[in-house]
Write a structure and sequence with these properties.
The complex is a heterodimer of chains A (279) and B (333). In chain A, 22% of the residues lie in helices and 30% in strands. By secondary structure, chain A is α/β, with parallel strands linked by helices. In chain A, the strands form 3 sheets. Chain A has a 7-stranded mixed β-sheet with strand order 10-9-8-7-11-12-15, sandwiched between helices. In chain A, strands 4-3-6-1-2-5 form a 6-stranded antiparallel β-sheet. Chain A has a two-stranded antiparallel sheet with strand order 13-14. Chain A is globular. Chain B starts with a strand and ends with a helix. Chain B contains 10 helices and 12 strands. In chain B, the strands form 2 sheets. Chain B has an 8-stranded mixed β-sheet. In chain B, strands 5-4-12-11 form a 4-stranded antiparallel β-sheet, with no helix packed on it. Chain B has 333 residues and is an alpha+beta fold. Classes of the chains: A alpha/beta (279), B alpha+beta (333). Chains A and B meet through strand 4 and strand 13 of A and strand 4, strand 5, helix 3, strand 11 and strand 12 of B.
Chain lengths: 279, 333
């Protein structure tokens, strides 16, 4: 019998924990097994199942870029049993990781194009992987614009990286917080993401838009992009349906005949339009 | 082409003894506590004399209710993770109906369409199926509407059909021939027996249903049909083809196990996101998923149906939802 146990995770050590925002943390994870580390590779947009042994597994994207070797990072908000247990862990603790799973953002097809990233709240992590991947291949792309919104200044994740992107002349970063979420001295914008995108008025020609955020933000941002002239084939997003296996078997991420864990999580708006809206 | 034999009823104990001697467990329908279910048997006398279907399905032989995937021990800054070997006891399923025998194909499609599921495969490898064709049916049966039949050989290694004094035995696969070889005296030359099974009328036009579903997603019938559904999941748990599962932890501070368990798309937790958002938050959406998964997504994805027409869901439903009637309605314009 040659089949292996496809449900068995790799053991990973938490090399670094970053407190991003209230109840939001980033783990940097390194393989305990050198051979597994050597054999591992992933592409931007892919995800994994992270184990807190004794509590279970949760699905998050890989939030780091494949161009940064030797580790993976995930960013999560404490929301349930598994994430609460993960949040209690300390640097040096061991967790599990299965992956990489799913498809990827086809960044090589975007050579010579402008990129517009639109992210809301805790949905910056999946785009952060693509952003760093594209910044590490900066020559491939023309203008790079990032619009990021959160409920409040305190809720912004990757605060140091936002400063880094802000300082780069080759990135146009627009950060906004919901009305009432600003603090004294806030120099970013105040307002919801969809109108901020509309006011920014990015040109749709030769441009790819990547949108990731809470359902309401996505729902209101897509019509704005359509109004600006972005065709559905040029708008990408990534879904995060509930999953247990990540392997196209457990059945819960099905959206129509599509397995989000296999055919996704990355979809163009054109693809989503052909599926039932069960995500 | 299947090799056919006459298997006298008097020879069945010799066959069972030969299978047991070969180290195989025999699971067959037995009447216990007023229920007919698959249980280990040693002799043919223990097999239920008169049954249409077991309540539970035979899938458990390859896809148990609960199965250990791994074991872990928790230490300070350390986890000791141990792989779980599938516990695949050599097993003969005797007396399952042709519908159920064909159900394993639908499980196999999911467990092996991409990566291969070692646990399912190990059990399937250790499993042989002696089906028994149907001479009786009830109102829940609709195998002939979904490409099967009361005498269908699909999925069986040997298919027996009752005849005077015993069974007509169709030996269909290498596993079937191996079982014949274990009990060579039990199988006699076929004197030209006639294979007679019950007639199961076609209840609906399945290709038509599958086509019709393409433009019926937003239809009100899913709400109407599911209004009385209580989301108990019984239909999924008795279904020979329902394959959706959960992965859960059974552990304390020192360690424990990761387990796979049956699950059902009929419950609200099935798709609930951590954020509280639920892509299928109503029972109507979940009922629609059940029908589409079996009759639209399965054909699209695996070129087969996710239903064998056994009718177990209809018999098990506590609020009398009737799959055959609902499908017939959905197939209509």
């Amino acid at each position: 019998m040659t089949d292996t146990n496809i449900y068995l995770p790799h053991l990973m050590r938490i090399a670094k924990i970053t407190e991003e925002a209230p109840a939001v943390k980033t783990f940097r994870l390194e393989f305990l097994d050198a051979a597994a580390a050597e054999a591992f590779s992933f592409e931007t947009g892919q995800f994994g199942l992270y184990s807190a042994f004794g509590e279970g597994e949760s699905t998050f994207c890989i939030a780091s870029s494949p161009t940064r070797k030797g580790y993976i990072e995930c960013t999560f908000r404490e929301a349930g049993r598994v994430t609460a247990s993960l949040a209690d862990k300390e640097e040096g603790d061991v967790v599990g990781f299965r992956g990489p799973y799913g498809n990827r953002f086809p960044i090589e097809q975007w050579k010579g194009k402008n990129l517009v990233f639109v992210a809301g709240g805790i949905a910056l992590p999946p785009l952060r992987s693509v952003i760093w991947n594209c910044l590490d291949l900066r020559d491939w792309f023309k203008d790079i614009t990032i619009v990021y919104g959160a409920r409040s200044v305190n809720d912004l994740v990757y605060k140091d990286e936002l400063k880094e992107w802000e300082a780069r002349p080759d990135v146009n970063l627009v950060v906004t917080v919901d009305p009432g979420g600003e603090v004294p001295g806030w120099t970013g914008k105040v307002g919801f993401v969809p109108p901020v995108v509309e006011a920014l008025n990015p040109a749709p020609d030769n441009t790819v838009a990547l949108v990731c955020g809470p359902p309401i933000m996505i729902k209101l941002t897509l019509p704005v992009l359509a109004k600006l002239g972005f065709p559905p084939e040029s708008i990408f997003t990534t879904l995060e349906n509930r999953m247990k296996c990540g392997l196209g078997k457990c059945g819960r991420c099905n959206t129509g005949s599509s397995y989000v864990c296999k055919d996704g999580p990355v979809y163009t708006l054109a693809q989503l339009n052909s599926l039932p809206a069960e995500y | 082409m299947a090799e056919t034999f006459f298997l006298p009823q008097a020879s069945l104990d010799a066959l069972f003894a030969a299978l047991a001697k070969d180290g195989r467990r025999i699971l067959a329908p037995t009447d216990r506590d007023g229920r007919t279910e698959l249980n280990p048997v040693a002799s043919f006398q223990e097999v239920a004399a008169d049954y249409i279907q077991t309540i539970l399905s035979a899938k458990e032989a390859a896809f148990p209710k609960v199965e250990r995937l791994m074991t872990f021990t928790l230490g300070a800054k350390a986890v000791d993770l141990k792989d779980a070997e599938p516990h695949a006891e050599p097993t003969v399923l005797f007396g399952v109906r042709p519908c159920e025998a064909s159900g394993f194909g639908a499980l196999d499609a999911v467990f092996n369409w991409d990566t291969r599921d070692r646990f399912f495969n190990a059990r399937m490898e250790a499993l042989a199926i002696i089906g028994v064709g149907c001479t009786k049916k009830d109102d829940a049966c609709f195998c002939t509407s979904v490409g099967g039949g009361p005498g269908s050989t699909r999925g069986s290694d040997i298919l027996l059909t009752p005849v005077e004094g015993g069974f007509l035995a169709e030996v269909l696969t290498p596993k079937g021939r191996a079982m014949v070889a274990l009990a060579p005296g039990a199988f006699q030359p076929d004197p030209g027996l006639e294979k007679k099974v019950v007639e199961v009328p076609v209840a609906f036009d399945q290709p038509g249903l599958t086509r019709r579903l393409k433009d019926r997603f937003e239809d009100g019938i899913w709400m109407e049909q599911s209004l009385r559904c209580v989301g108990c999941g019984a239909c999924a748990y008795v279904c020979p083809t329902c394959v959706c599962f959960d992965i859960v932890e059974e552990a304390d501070a020192k360690g424990g196990h990761r387990l796979r368990t049956w699950d059902s798309c009929g419950g609200p937790m099935f798709t609930l996101h951590a954020s509280g958002h639920n892509p299928r938050e109503t029972q109507a959406q979940r009922w629609r998923q059940r029908v589409y998964h079996k009759f639209s997504y399965y054909p699209e994805r695996y070129d087969m149906l996710g239903c064998v027409g056994c009718g177990k869901c209809t018999r098990a439903c506590p609020v009398d939802m009737n799959l055959q009637e609902h499908l017939a309605e959905a197939a209509q314009a």
